Each structure stands twice: as structure tokens, then as C-alpha cells.
Amino acid sequence: MTYQSEERNLSHPSQVWSHDMGRYRSAAARPRRITAGLLVALLALPLPSLAAPFWGERQSSPVDTPLDALVPGAWIWGGDDTRGGPMAVVVSLTEQRAYVYRNGVLIGVSTISSGRPGYDTPTGVFTVLQKDRDHRSNLYNDAPMPFQQRLTWDGIALHAGGLPGYPESHGCVHLPSGFARHLFDASNLGMTVVVAKAGEAPVSLVHPGPASPIDPHTGADIDSPPLANGQPWAWALSPPTVGPISMILSRSDRMLVVYRNGIEIGRSRVELARPDEHGGTRAYIVEGGATGTSANPEPSANTASSTATNTPTAPASTPTMPSWIAIGVPGAEQQAGQRVPASVVNQVSLPDAFKARLLPLLVPGSVLVATDAPLSAQSNGEHLRVIDSAGPRGWLDEVDTARHLGGD
Question: Which stretches within 292-398 are classed as H helix?
């Protein structure tokens, strides 16, 4: 019968006697055997996924930062109000930038990195098919792709990723992590995303401005005709009757554009009493509703919109302008909640007939964005300088160049 017992040897306290083996065995060797066994067991376990890197700047740049001054990884985000109307994204492959609009108004801009040669990001109109906050690639070694918003089922998506200043992805649109998180939290499934580049899309999509160049519901580019010479304002024939109101005031164009539920419903020339007194991009929200009543005459049925002549007939009663408070935007956070003095509000002069249509629609929550920028790139014939979209020579040498349509 074989048996073991352990007895301490007083002259060698670190040793034990093994009767079956007939020799001394160091007690210190036993923990080493146990440690080795644990190591083998641990190596057999599945390794946990590494945490995703953080790409790009951690904070938004000020809203008045010139877009050509946004370095790779920089971004601007000006609004998280999910009640503000439909969202849409325009990705300019030419500029290597993404533009985010809510209810027709630009609320965010970011540098991007699109597909490198051989993995070109497709252009066209897409919708967000799937959202995954912690997505990982099933093609590229479990690579982290956080805040993923899928555009195609073969692998094209918006997600946080590397931003070297030129196209370097496998087809996806890489965004800074901070910007990607804001966009992920604000968007819904079905959000429209238009990807455009020079030579394949109108200039308004390749070089977007502060007013949305697309219909957020369909992705179709919008051809908003400018007001004719001498025409002070225009109003849509059959504007949406529900949805939030947003407005853009361009000081350089002297123009106010009104959106409802993402669709332009009117525009008007404006007079600014002291145009040099206020500048930069600022956002305001209606605090109190307008008062009074208005006559809203039916537009002529044989025109595309209700338009004004040089001598419009004012309605019998015109409502008054509501009260406004400032929204804190990046670079002007300290202004959040400040009431806008009536003396400042009254510096903006609109035709009475246009006000008769607009003011009854302004309710608490309606938004106005005032900017020095023209409403579109075509307004002044100038385009912003774009980020260099060509990578350095030899930059493909260190990456896998196997062709694949998708990026996840």
C-alpha cells in the first residue's frame, strides 16, 4: 500500500519526506508547480478585449473657429436638443469633413478620415441601419469601432477612428471620439447621411454651409432659388403645419431663412440697424410666445410660393416679437440663459407681411442661429480651403492592402 505523509525535519524545516518517492522534496518547489498550473489555465481563458483608443480632440472647438483652421481630429458641436427636429449628415469627401444639421440648421462640423485608395468610401444617399456603441470589427482583428452607425450591410459605417489628416480607413468614415459620441447620442435609426465629392455632386453638397443643402427626409439636394431682385420675401405654398421652427440669420447675406420640420418654409431680406455691433455665431431660443393676432392670407395657387412685391399689403394686426434667451455654444458658454435685450432684438427689421406669417409660429423652444457666414458656398463665390486629402508617399506600406468593400 502506497501512502504519503509530510513530516517536518527539524534540521531542514523547508523539506518534507515522501515515503513513496523515497527522497527529500523541497516544499518551495510545490508552489512553483501550482503557479505554473495556474498560468497554463489562465492562458487557456479567452482574453478580454482591449479598451478602445480615444481619437481626436476631447472638447469642441469654439463655434467661430474657421473650418479651415480645424486640424485633424478637431470638431465643433453646438447642440444636443433631440427635440429640435430631424437630423441629417453631409459628408464631404473632398473637404474631409462631416456636417451635421438639425431642422435645417448646422449644429456640428468635424474633420474625418474616409476610405483610402482601394477602399474608397461610396458616395450617395444612405440611412442609418444599425447603431452599436461598442462595435468591434469582425474582419480586422476585432478592431474597436465605437459609436458605430451602419450605412450599408457590407460594412460601411460612421464610427470613431484614426484621423491622420487624409483618407486612411477601409471604407468607413472615421470621426473623432468626442464628436462620434455626440452624434451617436443625438441621432436616430433612419437618419439620412449623404456622402458627396467634387465632380459627382452639386457644389452645395461638396462645400456645405450653415443652411442644410438636403431634404433630411429623402436626402435629395435642395435647390432653393434666391430672392429675385426687388423681391423682399417668399413663403412656401403648402408649408408643413407641424414640427419645430428653426431659423438662420446670415448677416453677410442680410437674409433670414425659416425651417419647419427640416423643410424651408420662408425666407426674407432683413435690415440690420447696427450690423457691426454684434458678430460671430450665436444661438438663441424663444423664451416667451408672441402676442397679438394676424391675418394669414391664402397664397396664390398658380405660384410655387407666396411671394411679396415691393409694396406688400400688411395684415390688419401684426403680432409682436417674442422674448429670447441665449444658448451657450462652445466659445460663448457664459452667455447661456442670458435674456436678449429688446433693443438688440429690434435691430432686426423684417417686412410686416413676412412677420405676419412667421411670428405666430414662434413658440417657446423655437431656435434662431445668427452667423456672419453666407448661407451657402455659392453666395460669395469662395470656397473654404480644404484639408489635404492625399496621404504621404509610402503611407500604404505599413497597412494591409487586401481589397474589401467594407470597413468592419
Answer: 342-345, 352-358
| H helical segments located in 61-106 | none
Q: Chunked in runs of 10, what are the mean pLDDT values of the chain (408 residues)?
A: 38 40 45 51 52 93 94 91 85 98 96 97 97 86 90 95 96 98 96 97 94 95 84 94 95 95 95 83 82 40 45 54 91 91 89 95 94 74 35 33 38
Where residue 152 sits, what CATH number does that domain have? 2.40.440.10
DSSP 369-392: EEESS-SSGGGSS--------SPP
266 shares its domain with 368: yes
Helix (H, G, I), strand (E, B) or coil at 41: helix
Question: What is the distance between the alpha carbons of residues 185 and 125, in angstroms, rounded to a whole number?
Answer: 21
Cell 460601411, residue located: 156
Number of compact structural domains in the chain: 2
Structural domain harbouring 289: 233-375
What radius of gyration do the chain's Cα atoms show?
31
- Tell me the whole-structure pTM to 2 decimals: 0.77
The residues near 38 (Cβ < 8 Å, ≥ 6 apart) are none
Q: Answer for the pair 112, 96: CB distance below 8 angstroms, yes or no.
A: yes
